[in-house]
Structure prediction request, 238 residues.
Amino acid sequence: MRRYALAALLVALPCAAHARALPPTQYPTLPVQAADAAGFVPSGWTLESSIEGDLDQDGRADLVLVLRQQDPRNVIEHDGFGPSPYDSNPRILAIAWSRPSGYVLAAQDHQLIPRPDNPVMSDPLEDGGVSIQHGTLKVALFSFASAGSWSMGTTAFTFRWQDGAFVLIGYDQDSIMRNSGQTTSVSVNFSTRKVKRVEGSIEDDKERVRWEPLRGRQRWTLETVGDGWSFDPVAAGG
Prediction:
């Protein structure tokens, strides 16, 4: 649903405000181990945020890092809609296990958090967008367009470490049309294989709720979800 809303947004925008061709980026392989969070930051990148929490249930506080490239070529001047210049530098999401000797890299991914490619779109990662909740990793992406669309909302992914991978166990997409007040949400529970859809309005408390089974048996992980805006577990068959 979020994918279709974004596609409609880009069609509606003038050519000057469409997603832009960005300078190519080579993503580094992070160190296998480090003494602290700073030790995982490669040259030309910065530690944008870090949080601690026990993700593998061993009683020690693991690290979740958001790294962002600092290449001035990715700060783009333009004469279209949206702020100029705008920062298109990409991010890396990394997780490191806590060990008695320091930290060991568990996973790194540069696709889930989309690279900013349109100046009229908000930065997808707000403060607190990456969190640890009840031993799970949650990544929430925010969407807001300053031109071309009334839609705004959040898409959240919940991962749990199991069977040697960060497995997607929950997907929640909530949106609102700022002109009409119409609200929609899609919630997928990959454990129960159920999809909950809710339609409503900010003008009243009436909601229409529909349940449906999640078809297919696809096992999604942090490494296979890909771009968070393009991912649609229902269309993909779960």
In short: The helical segments are 2-12, 222-225. Residues 2-225 form one domain. Residues 111 and 155 are 15 Å apart (CA to CA). The radius of gyration is 19 Å.
